[in-house]
Design goal:
Number of strands: 8
Largest sheet: 4 strands, mixed
Oligomer: single chain
Shape: globular
Radius of gyration: 14 Å
Number of domains: 1
CATH architecture: Sandwich
Order of helices and strands: HEEEEEHEEE
Structural class: mainly beta
Helix content: under 10%
Mean pLDDT: 90
CATH superfamily: Transthyretin/hydroxyisourate hydrolase domain
Low-confidence stretches: 1-7
Distance between the termini: 9 Å
CATH class: Mainly Beta
């Protein structure tokens, strides 16, 4: 992100349109968490519904039509990051199951004309996530 909160490249383009985008950085190595599996689920009275499934790309962003608003309606959503499997694939001794096997975050989409950009800083032992702009 730039000093004023503006993103660069594809990330900046995504935040100008409706949808949900996720940008994951592995802070232990200081690089995007390339290859990490990510799922987005919508939650309603009938249960959980898979909205998107993908992997973090070389740029740190999950490429999926959800980034441009496909399938997004107002409501509650969960994001699940497969942290344990990601770090084991890098030969990091996190155990099985890992302390942070799945990093989960719940948020609410109120206005589907807005973009919900979710930057994530992740390590085997914790994570930080917020709504970016």
């Amino acid at each position: 992100m730039g000093a004023g909160g503006e993103g660069f490249g594809r990330e900046a383009q995504l935040t100008r349109m409706p949808g949900i985008s996720i940008h994951v950085v592995d802070v232990t190595r200081g690089v995007p968490a390339r290859g990490m599996r990510v799922e987005i689920h919508r939650i309603d009275d009938a249960g959980r519904h898979l909205v998107a499934r993908g992997e973090v790309g070389a740029d740190g962003v999950v490429a999926h039509p959800v980034t441009t608003g496909a399938g997004i309606v107002p409501g509650r959503y969960d994001i699940e990051l497969a942290a344990g499997a990601f770090y084991r694939a890098l030969d990091v001794d996190v155990g099985a199951p890992a302390f942070l096997e799945i990093a989960a975050f719940r948020f609410t989409v109120v206005d589907t004309t807005e973009h919900y950009h979710l930057p994530v800083k992740l390590s085997p032992w914790g994570f930080s996530i917020w709504r970016g702009r």
